[in-house]
């Protein structure tokens, strides 16, 4: 898992794919969201805009993926994300290969508050609970980048 700010994108220059993604995200105009299924790297990386409202942690659930790494990039609002190793959680909805997702219950090993310009990379072993509110529900606009696992 990686948690950082787009302002630090130069730190990732040696990681070619990640750096290319961060440069794309940084090139978006303030408040701009990409079109659905925007391809960043042919056959490997695409992204989708997501608009949602944060909610209490009790109303959220962990998710994890096997075929894709998720990169969450906040455009507007603040989003709490809890993380845990998939192996430490209990599967609540079995893996759906077509949707590349399984859902889990359990306790967080880390909690993060993402502000505009922040990003988080979640690998297949990183279950992540998204849309957690800080003090009150808040509208969030973000980009979710899907990076195919090789």
TrEMBL record:
- InterPro entries (UniProt xref): NanQ/TabA/YiaL (IPR004375), NanQ/TabA/YiaL_sf (IPR037012)
An example Gene Ontology CC term for this record: cytosol
Stored NCBIfam families:
YhcH/YjgK/YiaL family protein
- What protein name applies here? YhcH/YjgK/YiaL family protein
Its source organism is: Blautia producta
